[in-house]
Amino acid sequence: MRRTVCGIVAAVGDIDVRLCREILNRIEHRGPDDTGEVHRGDVWLGHQRLSIMDVDGGHQPLAEPGGKSCLVANGEIYNHRQIRAELGPELFRTGSDSEAALHALLVDGPAGLTRLRGMFALAYIDEKGAFLAARDSLGVKPLYWARGNGRTLFASELRAFDPADRPLVESFPPGCCWSPQGGLVRFADAVPPRVRPARRAGKAGQWDEQLLKSVREVIVSAVEARMMSDVGIGVFLSGGLDSAIVTAVAAKYAERNRQPLPTFAVGLADSSDLAAARVVAEHLGTEHHEVVMTPEDAVATLPSAVRAIEHFDLHLVRSAVPNLLLAEYAAKRVRTVLTGEGADELFAGYPSYHVGPLLDPDALQAELVRDVEGLHHLNLQRCDRTTMAYGLEARVPFLDRDVIELALSIPPEHKMIGPGIEEKKLLRDAFSGWLPEEILRRGKLQFGHGSGAKDVLTAALMPTASDGAAGTGALDEEAAFYALWHAEFDGISPERALEWSA
Fold it and tell me: What are the residue numbers of the active site?
């Protein structure tokens, strides 16, 4: 069965229950374990559930004891235990982390959203019938909306909407809530304003142990907070620095708690990612799994990858193909995985950060902030969709609020490269001794490159492209990805779409 993490649907205004149920059915893959709905006046809420926390008692819509206030949510509230303690454990009837969001809204109204630490998209109706929708500050969990025809519709994926409504569909802005009475209101920023701009101090490589300790401790804390699960949890281990650090921290946590830690890697048989991941897994003693991808696998998965991520960006699609193969395999063994998303944007890991205008510290800082704020359009969309296509919840510890705040308060000079100073040296030094040196010093490779997917897809789509025409080939390859994306939303066969792009 195709499965994915929870999905939500909501409608306000001129309600057509039949249409709402059709929309919910289109994202059934996001939650194979349970479904639920509530219709009250001019509000309808629907939910598809993947059970991770309180498997038996977390049915949604969640309702307060009187049943008048209800909530549907997608995601995880990592500080739900703290919220329970603050509001009073006697208020809670389940062990579901989403119930913390319900009671925060019951007690504080929309201001209760500021209590929540985690990744979430939610819709809520109070005892008076007032509606509220909200999305986490980074947009880790997806939410789309369409306004028109006398109603406002919300859903977790683009594909959920009727073709007639798709021209109206927009991405719901992260860190915002909306109600018919109050309109769109921002309640949280992806990057707290107080961390901008970074203060100046020294050069790259000139940092003290206290800074390294602070970086290490905040990342350890973020990973450990995301190890909560009533079902299996693992790590996507590409063999790169970021996923290796997450694995190292998770492995220590798992060992202390006497639980196994499955790790999952994917790539062509001779890919550098598989080889590096193997080194990390052997060093840490994880329960390691490899998905050996063939060129035929990659090409066959391409249409499914474009369909899953609902995007045609060149780099996203190249990385989505191996991600989707890995998710399909991992979903048979765990329900949740940790990934290394966000580290490159926080610590200047991409080569593009170290050329041209970005050699100026202020320009680099501004670019990092912009990229973190825009992650929901790109990498986070790919991360969510590829895992959720098979019933996996992906968690992103590097994008914890405390990690973001610390990382972007570090002087940008500390993130710049130079003689003997590689990208992300600060992060590498912070975890010195946690990983083999060959992994700590391994250069940056985008996932599509390291897994081998990029070369395979380029060769398959551009068989006549010469080595000297890489730019043209890349444009043609993205045109093919666009054709597949277009086919998904206009009912054209993938084969015909690829013919059209050629």
Answer: 6
Radius of gyration of the CA atoms of the chain, in A:
22
Tokens of 492: 């054209």
371 token code pair: 């990229």
Residue 190 to residue 187: CA distance in whole angstroms: 10
Task: State pLDDT tens for residues 189-214.
Answer: 999 876 655 455 556 667 889 999 99
Give Cα separations from 192 to 76, 126, 187 (angstroms).
21, 29, 11
Neighbours of 86 (CB within 10 A): 14
This prediction's pTM: 0.90
Say which range, 164-178, 351-365, 435-449, has the weakest mean pLDDT. Answer: 435-449
Give me the domains of the chain, ranges plus CATH numbers. Answer: 7-186 (3.60.20.10), 193-440+449-461 (3.40.50.620)
**77-117 pLDDT, tens digit each:** 999 999 999 999 988 988 888 999 999 999 999 999 999 99
pLDDT for res 53: 46
- The answer to whether 394 and 324 are in contact (CB under 8 A) is no
Distance between CA 39 and CA 501 in Å, rounded? 44
